[in-house]
Structure prediction request, 85 residues.
Amino acid sequence: MTKLEAIAFFMDMDECTHGGSEPIQMAIKALEEQDSILDKIKAEIEEQVLESLSDGGDDWFAAEKVNECLEIIDKYKAGDEYGSD
Prediction:
């Protein structure tokens, strides 16, 4: 199940309770906020890499590996792997 499917599932459940289920609303909010947390993590990593390279660092191999890690974050943001573990 992708993250978007999970949000839709919980929204359907919430509609069945006429919006009166606080735990369901909390679950929806947590799933929606997951992207903003990943965005913050990604931005901080990118900032650190750029800072390192601008300070005279020339380790482009390490920078490429960091970019691969950022792609992993993007994959999870897209919800491709949510709940498949």
Summary: The CA atoms of residues 14 and 25 lie 7 Å apart.
